[in-house]
Design brief:
- The complex is a heterodimer of chains A (297) and B (269).
- Helices cover 73% and strands 0% of the residues of chain A.
- Chain A is mainly alpha-helical and 297 residues long.
- Chain A has 2 domains: 1-151; 153-297.
- Chain A is globular.
- Chain B has 2 helices and 17 strands.
- The chains are: A mainly alpha (297), B mainly beta (269).
- At the A-B interface, α2, α4 and α6 of A face α1 and β9 of B.
Chain lengths: 297, 269
């Protein structure tokens, strides 16, 4: 934000790459669960006692997920070293440390869920932390961008339509909804809870997005952020319906069916994007609407 | 007539998907560790029981069959394309074995056993091992019983990797890899549990069922849908039939000395 922050295009591109690889990792993790491949490789950290087992059947998905996870872990270490060496913002260094701790925790949770035969609470924590980690990488990409250095077109908070506090509600609700979805996928709860959570989260997203579009639309960043969150959430609702319908259609199948797997995995990936969009919007609100006395607009 | 009970389709995996779990789970996952992990511990064997003795002169038989009424469901063809080495082992497409209705209208792969009525006793454990083979990326047999403490031998006759996951609830669950040409695995189950699935996540269509019984009076219906429990002491027993999809049914029989008692179970779509 401060004009003296130097722009480092290399670091920004690296952060974007890390975020992209993390999204791929979320997709790979979704494939493991949807294809019932979570226990294809019973040992950990090695796979069938090797670094590279024969990539067949469920092993392709399970070990493939481990390989992408290892890559993301290494990329996160590089990010931390890079940021630690060149960044002047202390909070940015702390964010990079938090990202590394999160990715380590993810690895441990992933290993534990295999060794303990997929207990729902570990598998669901693993799935939820993955979503949080992806949002962290997206935030890192935002904070290292050239755009972040530019002075924002700040506007005061409207007393009648405050937005700073409200903007935090969306990521919290989306994260809870993602955790419900993860718990349903790991058979801890029925999918009814996730289904019931859907209108609540959609309502909260609509609430904040419409408030921004109605009262803060002059600010381009906020307008864009709200529209992106709204669009992704809209897609996510329909993907959720498609994923559920495909599960009903293939309830009697003896193996995961491609259509069900496809819809479910896209739903998981867009869920990660929804959380990232809501976190980004909350960041944008804090950047563009400074704290202080709200005024009547 | 056999008494109908609530089906417990697809056995124990479904238990975990019950709606009993609380909603507040996200930050609380780690808190419930102890509760969840406790379910895996194997139940301690019952206190010292007298050794069971069967008098061959009076032992009888329980026989019967399992009938299927209605239209048999069409089983889907298994898609083995994810592992061509599995596919190559079959000359024709392989159908799922969830429901197999025999040509005489009976149901195959139903586990039938004496659920109750036997005097409390320690029954002899068979010296030979019960075998589960992985061949053509299918389990063989699909359903079988073992006596508590009996050796359970697992073979991999395939040229591919398998993982063997015993999804027990009352016995200790385990999941182990078994590469091609690996040594046979030998396991034991110490607690009564009818039935639990054995699955392979490398090949998600692979599924077998094992019933652990404290005594040797169990059978699985085969190509003619019949079953026979031999060497049963005279008495009145509750016989239970368990099918992986259609659940449980039970009925009572009385075995006279050296006699044969009959019972028929009926399942339908």
């Amino acid at each position: 934000m401060a004009p003296e922050i130097p722009y480092r295009p290399g670091l920004h591109r690296w952060s974007v790459l890390l975020a992209f690889c993390t999204l791929l990792l979320v997709v790979a993790g979704g494939l493991v669960t949807s294809r019932d491949a979570g226990l294809s490789v019973p040992d950990w950290p090695l796979s069938y006692g090797k670094l590279m087992p024969q990539m067949e059947g469920g092993i392709f998905y399970d070990h493939g997920h481990r390989m992408i996870a290892t890559t993301v872990g290494l990329f996160t270490i590089v990010s931390l070293i890079w940021i630690w060496r060149v960044e002047t913002r202390r909070w940015m260094k702390r964010l990079a440390v938090a990202a590394l701790l999160a990715v380590i925790a993810q690895g441990v949770l992933g290993g534990l869920t295999v060794l303990l035969l997929l207990p729902w609470w570990i598998s669901s924590s693993h799935a939820s932390l993955a979503q949080l980690f992806f949002s962290t990488t997206v935030a890192m990409a935002l904070f290292t961008s050239d755009w972040w250095r530019r002075q924002p077109d700040r506007m005061p908070e409207s007393a009648a339509s405050p937005v700073r506090g409200l903007s935090l509600l969306a990521p919290v609700c989306v994260l809870c909804q993602l955790a419900l979805g993860a718990a349903a996928r790991h058979k801890a709860i029925g999918s009814i809870y996730h289904i019931c959570g859907s209108p609540v989260v959609t309502g909260v997203v609509l609430w904040i997005s419409l408030r921004i579009l109605l009262h803060y639309a002059k600010n381009r960043e906020l307008r864009l952020g709200a529209l992106v969150l709204l669009s992704i959430t809209f897609c996510q609702v329909f993907l959720g319906i498609a994923a559920y319908m495909s599960r009903i259609a293939y309830a009697d199948s003896v193996q995961p069916m491609p259509l069900m797997v496809t819809f479910t995995v896209i739903h998981v990936a867009v869920g990660a994007l929804t959380l990232a969009a809501s976190v980004s919007l909350a960041i944008l609100v804090r950047r563009n609407v400074p704290a202080g006395a709200a005024v009547s607009l | 007539m056999p008494e109908e009970r609530q089906p417990r389709a697809m056995c124990l995996v479904m238990r975990k998907s019950s709606l009993k779990r609380p909603l507040a789970f996200l930050p609380l996952f780690l808190v419930v560790t102890a509760c969840s992990s406790g379910s895996r511990t194997e139940t301690a064997s019952s206190p010292a029981l007298p050794q069971a003795s069967i008098d061959p002169a009076t032992a009888g038989t329980v026989s019967g069959r399992v009938v299927f009424t209605g239209t048999p469901p069409v089983m889907p063809v298994i898609d083995m394309s994810s592992n061509p080495q599995c596919e190559r082992q079959h000359k024709a497409p392989v159908q799922a074995e969830t429901v197999i209705v025999n040509s005489n209208g009976t149901l195959r792969n139903v586990f039938v056993w004496i659920k109750s009525g036997l005097p409390p006793a320690k029954w002899p454990v068979p010296a030979n091992a019960a075998k589960l083979d992985q061949s053509g990326c299918m389990y063989s047999p699909r359903v079988q019983g073992v006596v508590e403490g009996q050796e359970f031998e697992i073979l991999n006759s395939d040229p591919v990797n398998h993982n063997v996951h015993a999804e027990c609830a009352r016995n200790a669950a385990w999941n182990e890899s078994q590469p091609p040409r690996a040594e046979h695995k030998f396991k034991q189950f110490g607690t009564e549990e009818v039935l639990f699935p054995v699955t392979c996540s490398v090949h998600p269509w692979m599924r077998a069922y094992v019933g652990v019984s404290p005594h040797p009076f169990f059978s699985v219906t085969s190509e003619d849908g019949t079953f026979e429990l031999k060497g049963v002491p005279p008495g009145t027993y509750t016989i239970e039939a368990v099918h992986e999809k259609y659940g449980r049914k039970e009925g009572k029989v009385t075995v006279a000395p050296s006699g044969t008692a009959s019972i028929e179970f009926t399942y339908g779509s």
